[in-house]
Amino acid sequence: MREPHELMADDYCGPSKVINLGQIKNLDGFRFIGIDKHGNKHYCIIRKGDGGSFYMSSNTVLFHDLCGWLPDTYNEMTHSGGWTRA
Predict the structure, then answer these.
(1) What is the C-alpha end-to-end distance of the chain, expressed in Å?
(2) What is the pLDDT at residue 32?
(3) In the chain, which end has fewer C-beta atoms inside a 10 angstrom radius, N or C?
(4) What SS3 class is residue 15?
(5) How far does Cα 13 stand from its chain's mean position?
(6) Cα–Cα distance for residue pair 83/12, rounded to 1 Å
(7) Pairing relation of β-strands 66-71 and 31-36?
(8) Are 71 and 32 a contacting pair, CB within 8 Å?
(9) What pLDDT score does 75 carry?
């Protein structure tokens, strides 16, 4: 799998450090912030299909348009009991 910096467009203006797409967890309900080739953020979730395979769902981007990802820290904190939204 290619590294994030190899997939970034010349006009990339997103976060300087993003995680390689190969490190996304195949867990049903795993949420992350996908970063596209131009640096835009997209909220994504991993789902488990009927056949047992996993796929990414997002209303704003396709997986092949991403160059990397960041953890969804809000989701991690709310589901770990760390804090809740008021």
Answers:
(1) 40
(2) 96
(3) C
(4) coil
(5) 17
(6) 33
(7) antiparallel
(8) yes
(9) 58
Closest CA to 61 of 20, 32, 29: 32
**pLDDT digits over 32-49, tens only?**
999 999 999 999 999 999
Closest to 40 in 3D by CA, of 55, 24, 62: 62
Q: Would the pLDDT of 73 be above 90?
A: no
- What is the arrangement of strands in the sheet containing 31-36, beginning at the earlier edge strand? 54-57, 41-48, 31-36, 66-71
The pTM of the full predicted model, rounded to 2 decimals, is: 0.79
Q: If you write DSSP's letter for every residue of 16-81 in order, what string do you get?
A: S--B-GGG----TT-EEEEEETTS-EEEEEEEE-TTS-EEEE-SS--GGGEEEEEE-HHHHHHHTT
Q: Which amino acid is residue 23, in one-letter code?
A: Q
Block residue for tokens 């590294």: 3
